[in-house]
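Handout for the seminar on molecular recognition.
Each group receives one record of this type.
Step one: identify the two inputs.
Step two: read the structure output and locate the region that could contact calcium ion.
Step three: write two sentences on what you found, then compare them with the reference statements printed after the record.
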Amino acid sequence: MFIKNGFHSRAVRSGFTLIELVMFIVIVSIAVIGILQVMNVTTKNSADPQLRKQALSIAEALLEEVSLARFTFCDPADPNAETAANAAACAVPEGVGPENGNVRPFDNVNDYVAAYGVAQPIAIADVNAIGIPNLANYAATIKIVQQAFNGIPATDSLLITVSVAYGAETITLDGYRTRYAPNLMP
Ligand SMILES: [Ca+2]
Ligand SMILES: [Ca+2]
């Protein structure tokens, strides 16, 4: 006797149809492309932190050099430099810009710029001559502004801004230098 029921009369499916297979391939391909694009971006940008770190090191070094310069009323060539209480007591007062014969590293903060408030290029030196690779790819500028700071008048306080550019990026550091020892000479 032939017994017919729903179970035996239906075709039992196994595997996928061609359309399902094609859809599966398409969906997996889209997912893989997305993952590959993320990996591509990650790989391309993986060198950036190192460039940023080097730019930051350059900016820190330049800001340190400028901040450590003296802030006297007179140029060191002036015999009154160790005693002068103001610029009027100097034969060679420290005006903005390097005085005659001043060379880097300068003897005063204000020697590092030709004018206050104007950004100007500052050379990046490989002082130990160890051949730092691609140093020429960085460009630095410095700007100094007379700016009052926490009760210290603008004439005795300088805001130093160092910017280091590399590619399309720029690192900028600020620091204040105050006239805390106006007669401190080497
Ligand atoms: Ca000077
Ligand atoms: Ca000067």
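Reference statements: The chain has three helices and four strands. The radius of gyration is 33 Å.
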